[in-house]
Amino acid sequence: MSETDSGFERTVDILVVGSGAGGFTAALAAKARGLEPLLIEKADQFGGTSALSGGGVWIPGAPAQVRAGHTIDPEDVVTYLRTLTDGEVSEARIRAFVDNAPRMMDFLEKISPRMQFMWKAGYPDYFPELPGGSSEGSVINIRQIDLRELGADEKSLLSSLAGPPKGMWIAPEELRHFYRLHQSWKGKGVFLKLIGRTLRARLLGERKVAIGQALMARFMLAFREQNLEMWLASPLQSLITDQDGSVIGAVVRHEGVDRRVRTRGGVILASGGFDHSPEMRAKFHPFLESPRSYGATSNTGDGILAGQQVGADVGLMDSAWWYPNVHRAGGSIHALNERMMPAQFIVNSVGKRYINEATPYSEFGRAMMTSDESGADRMESWLITDHRSWNRYVIFGHLPLPKIPFAPAPTGRRMPASWLDSDAVETAGSIEDLAVKIGVPRSRLRETFDRFNELAKQGVDEDFHRGESIYDNYNGDITLPNPNLTPIDEDGPYYAFKLTLADFGTNGGLVTDERARALRADGTPIRGLYATGNTTASVMGYSYAGAGATLSPTMTFGFVAANDIANEVTIAACSAAESVATSE
Question: Considering only CA atoms, which of 234, 216, 271, 235 is closest in space to residue 534?
Answer without folding.
Answer: 271
